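Figure S7 source data.
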Amino acid sequence: MKSEKRKVIIHFSLFTFHFSLFMNSAIIVAAGSGTRFGTKTPKQFLEILGKPLVIHTLERFESCPAIDEIIIVLSLEETAGFRQTAEKYNLKKLAKIVAGGDTRAASVLNGLNAIDSQKCEIVAVHDGARPLVSIREISATVEKARETGAACLVASIPDTIKEVADGKIVGTIDRSNLRRALTPQCFRLEILKRAFAENEISEIVTDECFLVEKLGYEIATVEGGAQNIKITNREDFVFAENLLKQLEDSEFRI
Ligand code: CTP
Ligand code: MG
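Tokens for the predicted cytidine-5'-triphosphate complex:
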């Protein structure tokens, strides 16, 4: 937590002294059941290098100077023991443990409702199932949101994209303007709150930008790396496991 990263506003009046400190808060959503992954234990609690996958994700935010506090959203049954888990892994920035909802968007909203709006300036929403985000990517996206109000980490598409109908290629799509939406997605708190208040929250809302786009708000992009995958299937887990092992064993950094 670097104090120069914080915006401090001091109002002086004749007799009173108001001191407000704005923070950047991260909401890590990890309340899903991992249907596509298909294991009994949800994917975010499977271990890599002796710790649950979600702990690797939390450690990224713990080590990022742009983040002041972390709100974790978990399934109700995971909430009770998680404070102890956080202590075990020395997660000092963990401020709140919140129960999730039926959809990812509902889980994000529960996290959002737990934030103290008097103190928070930027909120960074991140998937618990993305342990390979870099500290630089988190900082750059938070910083861009501070400048512009809304920022999304994105990645280019390496493959040629085809349009297909009835099992046949009917066209080639120009991918130079296409990007994959990653997380974190960062916003001034009031923008994200308004986006949730003014839109219907359903299964089709798979990211926050979708809601903020609907407000007509411009969202800046930050180009991220290909390594920041979401663990969805078994092969993603193998990729993450290998990369995290390599990171621990070598000077290689992401
Ligand atoms: N998530 C959540 N609450 C939900 C659904 C998802 O907090 N009701 C979280 C997941 O835990 C994950 C992130 O949102 O970290 C991205 O979701 P996804 O990869 O789709 O995970 P799951 O929903 O668990 O997987 P699946 O869709 O295969 O069931
Ligand atoms: Mg899902």
